[in-house]
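look at this:
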Amino acid sequence: MDSQEDWELYKEAGDGIVNADGIRFLGRTYTLSWAVRRQWFTRAIEEGPWPIRMYVQRQSMQLFIKEQDEYYICMPTMETDEELEAIHNKRKRFAELKQLWFEARAGNKRNHHFPGKRTNR
């Protein structure tokens, strides 16, 4: 699609934010399978949120993102703000536990002590 056709079909709607819950835009959360397959929401947990340009299709008034000259439709999620907060808290706790596990594992390797593992001494 050339830029003239793009302009006729899509219009910039503003910036959304990619975070662990999805793409936040105008107070709602959206998702799309393309971003899930590329692990955007997992990356947002590890690296933090980032902005993304949102587009609206003039005829249908549906939201899209644009990546590498392709448009991908965004679908609203059905979670309430309370549910999203609970999900966020669980993900945060999981990340904390994961970090503790990695730290404990790194400490065990330095001490050459592996509980429950036999050695050939």
